[in-house]
Amino acid sequence: MGWKNDPSLGKVVIDEKQLNERVQQLAAQISIDYSGKSVLLIGVLKGAIMFISDLARAITVPVEFDFMAVSSYGSSTKTSGVVRIIKDLDADLSGKHVLIVEDIVDSGLTLSYLMRNLSQRGPASLGVVALLVKVGIQYAPLDLKYVGFEIPPEFVVGYGLDVSERYRNLPYIAEYIGSEE
Ligand code: 5GP
């Protein structure tokens, strides 16, 4: 069955071409802003995998990678705000220019936790690149240096984002409407 016939998927929110163009633009801007430096990209597993790999390939300054896995307690489609580190970084952040690479910012609680946590590890600088930001629902103002797209507050899947581990390999972002079981 192709993605087009999947009844759990609603409308396409961001297609492949839009994703690719925006990722290239973000990478170009990052390459300018970090010119003469190297940048440590921290991917937040697993949702950011597609984004970090496409982004990193388009950045022209030296790049290092590290990954973190966090889990938020709560149901699969809502975050509770309580964040737990499942996998911590391998790298020492001291003196490094760090960019957190996030798939999607919903309430912003995951990201504000990560920023607080990582800022205490002595990076030379700390920024965020978020592919998607849901409009109007962040509890606390976040300083997001780079944002791919603002989207309506609907649950989406694809390009790394899942529902129970499915749809991460969908090559675009689509609304998830669920199955009627
Ligand atoms: P926040 O802490 O900002 O409320 O939630 C951030 C995390 O919740 C994201 O990193 C992602 O794992 C998950 N999330 C939030 N919104 C969505 C969504 O629309 N689709 C999917 N698949 N995950 C989401």
Q: What does this protein look like?
A:
The chain has 181 residues and is of the alpha/beta class. It has one domain: Rossmann fold (3-Layer(aba) Sandwich), CATH 3.40.50. The protein is 22% helix and 33% strand. The protein contains 3 helices and 9 strands. The strands form 2 sheets. The chain has a 6-stranded mixed beta sheet with strand order 4-3-2-5-6-7, with helices on both faces. Helix 1 (16-33) crosses helix 2. It binds guanosine-5'-monophosphate. Residues 47, 72, 79, 102-111, 155-157, 161-162 line the site of guanosine-5'-monophosphate.
In short:
The chain has 3 helices and 9 strands, in the order βαβαβββαββββ. With 181 residues, it is α/β, with parallel strands linked by helices.
Question: Which key phrases capture this entry?
Answer:
181 residues, Rossmann fold, 6-stranded mixed β-sheet, 22% helix, 33% strand
SSE diagram, text form:
Layout: E1 9-14, H1 16-33, E2 39-45, H2 49-58, E3 63-72, E4 83-87, E5 97-105, H3 109-119, E6 125-134, E7 146-151, E8 156-157, E9 173-176
Helix pairs in contact: 1-2
Bound molecules: guanosine-5'-monophosphate.
Shape, please? Answer: globular
Number of helices: 3
Spatial ordering of strands, largest sheet:
4-3-2-5-6-7
**Rg, alpha carbons:** 16 Å
What is the CATH T-level topology? Rossmann fold
**Beta content:** 25-35%
Distance between the termini: 18 Å
Describe the largest sheet: 6 strands, mixed
Helix-strand string: EHEHEEEHEEEE
Mean pLDDT, all residues: 91
Strand runs, count? 9
Counted up, domains total 1
Broad structural category: alpha/beta
The CATH class turns out to be: Alpha Beta
Low-confidence stretches: none
Helix content: 10-25%
Listed once per kind, the bound small molecules are: guanosine-5'-monophosphate
**What would CATH call the architecture?**
3-Layer(aba) Sandwich
